[in-house]
Specification:
The chain is an alpha+beta fold and 299 residues long. It has two domains: 143 residues, Sulfite Reductase Hemoprotein, domain 2 (Alpha-Beta Complex), CATH 3.90.480.10; 100 residues, no CATH class. The chain is 24% helix and 21% strand. The protein contains eight helices and 15 strands. The strands form three sheets. It has a five-stranded antiparallel sheet. The protein has a five-stranded antiparallel sheet with strand order 3-14-15-12-11. Strands 6-7-8-9-10 form a five-stranded mixed sheet. A hairpin with a 4-residue loop joins strand 14 and strand 15. 37% of the residues are buried.
Length: 299
């Protein structure tokens, strides 16, 4: 997409997670083919800025090589799967993500901005994130499939049933004229009788449902904020300790829709433990987590 400082290229990490090697490759690509600036969007995408028409083909080759972009353009046009960033291997969110990924080609052709939120923890984290169909958890602990814009959803008894109902609702959206509305929230047709909106999602956590993950230490590692939702490639290299002797303790980085990154593991060096790497924030009161600011041209 063209912007004031060149082409804007979006990357949708699989399950919202980049391995250490993938993040380093992304940083190299941002500097080699763009301005070196990387943004984190409210849909948990990463954006590379300052790409030119001449550098774009090389960038695509690099991104495909490292599994950051699908080689098949049609795969990139499928709705994004947005997973709650605190998922763990084998939990319900991860299971649903794998099942839905395997059946993603069963979805109909949908509007470009459509998204699917998989948010099956104790209470929803992604309530405020952009999505059209959501798989959440009810207070009864049952999985719930909810159409965006409806306060309640339909309970199901397994991850497989949740994926089945979600695919069926996507087809209903198209068949009932939803393409003209563009998004599920704007689609006013009543839900079909086989998907009654009967059950609200759970909201039992101490934090308000939909609230961003807290900055600072996390059971998986550490959550750090990006000022204005962006960072330089050099900053992200420092984040994972690319030059550090204990860098191997950082295995991956997860993206979120809240201008925050979840680092899986952290270097054990005293400097990293005691100080936020330059260019990142760990204060919830930092106004740069909420401010909108154009990077300018030519950045």
């Amino acid at each position: 997409m063209a912007s004031g400082d060149g082409l804007l290229v979006r990357v949708r990490p699989r399950f919202g997670r980049l391995t250490r090697d993938q993040l380093l490759a992304l940083c190299d690509a941002a500097e080699t083919y763009g301005s070196g600036l990387i943004e984190l969007t409210s849909r948990a995408n990463l954006q590379l800025r300052g790409v030119s028409e001449a550098s774009w083909p090389g960038l695509m080759e690099a991104l495909v090589e490292h599994g950051l972009v699908a080689a098949d353009p049609e795969a990139e046009r499928r709705p994004q799967l947005l997973l709650a960033p605190d998922w763990r291997a084998g939990d319900a969110t991860n299971q649903v993500g794998r099942l839905l990924e395997a059946r993603i080609n069963e979805l109909p052709a949908l509007p470009a901005k459509w998204g699917l939120a998989i948010d099956a923890g104790a209470a929803p984290l992604l309530s405020e994130a952009s999505a059209d169909l959501r798989i959440e958890r009810a207070a009864s602990d049952a999985l719930l499939v909810r159409a965006d814009g409806r306060a309640r959803g339909t309970p199901v008894d397994s991850p497989t049933a949740a994926v089945e109902l979600l695919i069926r609702l996507a087809h209903w959206f198209v068949a009932s004229g939803g393409i003209h509305a563009g998004r599920m929230r704007r689609h006013e047709a009543p839900l079909p009788p086989w998907a009654p909106a009967s059950t609200p999602p759970a909201s039992t956590l101490p934090i308000r449902a939909g609230q961003p993950m807290a900055l600072g230490r996390h059971p998986t590692g550490r959550v750090l904020g990006l000022p204005f939702g962006r960072a330089s490639a050099a900053t992200l290299r420092a984040l994972i300790g690319a030059e550090s002797v204990d860098a191997g303790s950082v295995s991956a980085v997860r993206v979120t829709p809240w201008r925050r990154l979840l680092v899986e593991g952290v270097p054990t060096s005293e400097t990293f433990q005691e100080q936020v790497p330059p260019g990142l924030v760990e204060s919830e009161g930092d106004p740069r987590l909420a401010m909108q600011a154009c990077p300018g041209a030519p950045h």
